[in-house]
Design a protein that fits this description.
Layout: H1 6-14, H2 16-22, H3 28-36, E1 43-47, H4 55-60, E2 64-68, H5 72-75, E3 96-102, H6 110-120, E4 121-134, H7 139-148, H8 165-169, E5 177-187, H9 189-197, H10 200-203, H11 207-221, E6 226-238
Parallel strand pairs: 1-2, 1-3, 3-4
Antiparallel strand pairs: 4-6, 5-6
Length: 240
């Protein structure tokens, strides 16, 4: 897994099962929005596909999807996925109509990734970046953030915005356009434990410290169910 950030390589290799159980799906409205931007039956590369959270609804919408994922443990949850990274995509030039990236672009070497994405995209092809973001001002999310923030260190994250700079430098894509969708996710203690446990820098902790964090995550949910508000962001541009 050379070339992958250590926190991603180690954390996601440990947390594939938790990722599948705890990470929210994408709202139907966001998927419909994406599908409307590509032609029916288009060939789509789902890059850094993880366990297939974005791959599966795109396939269900009738698109031909090629999933690429570098972490073997994640890839094993997604039959047919190819091994590869954003900086070394195992596809030919101009071979896809669209590229989607769910919860992952902030992990990439942005300049190298955009060059590779431009290589595999046909002219006019769509690049779509999708994130389910916890709504910071919500009290539940505030409690989650208080729990995990001491462990974040310098781990790449969407919230920092550093990933945007590669788009400012590239001439291969049109400017990013953004659409947002509200997304309420109901979870119990098991679900919230899996959600927190799927975070790369939490999964990378030693077992004793990780267990303590996960027990505190369960306490946030208590004995019932809680609603965790997300805002799904879909950022799109076209290959020129």
């Amino acid at each position: 897994m050379s070339g992958i950030h250590r926190a991603a390589a180690e954390g996601f290799s440990r947390s594939a099962e938790a990722y599948e159980r705890g990470r929210p799906e994408y709202p139907e409205a966001a998927i419909a929005y994406l599908v409307e931007l590509v032609r029916p039956g288009a060939t789509v590369l789902d890059l850094a596909a993880g366990t297939g959270k974005l791959t599966r609804p795109l396939v269900a919408a009738g698109l031909r999807v090629v999933a690429v994922e570098p972490v073997a443990e994640m890839r094993s949850a997604l039959p047919g996925a190819l091994e590869g990274t954003a900086e070394a995509i195992p596809l030919g030039d101009g071979s896809v109509d669209a590229v989607t990236v769910g919860q992952a672009f902030h992990w990439f070497d942005g300049d190298a990734a955009l060059a590779e994405i431009a290589r595999v995209l046909r002219p006019g092809g769509l690049l779509a970046l999708v994130w389910n973001r916890r709504v910071d001002e919500d009290p539940v999310n505030g409690a989650i953030e208080e729990l995990i923030a001491p462990y974040r260190a310098d781990t790449p994250a969407h919230r920092g915005g550093a990933w945007r700079t590669s788009f400012e430098r590239t001439s291969a894509f049109t400017p990013l356009e953004e659409a947002t969708f509200e997304h309420l996710v109901v979870q119990d203690a098991d679900g919230l434990e899996a959600r927190v446990g799927s975070i790369s820098f939490i999964a990378s902790l030693d077992s004793a410290e990780r267990a303590g964090v996960l027990e505190r995550a369960r306490a946030i949910a208590g004995d019932g169910e809680i609603t965790v508000p997300y805002r799904t962001e879909v950022l799109t541009c076209r290959h020129v």
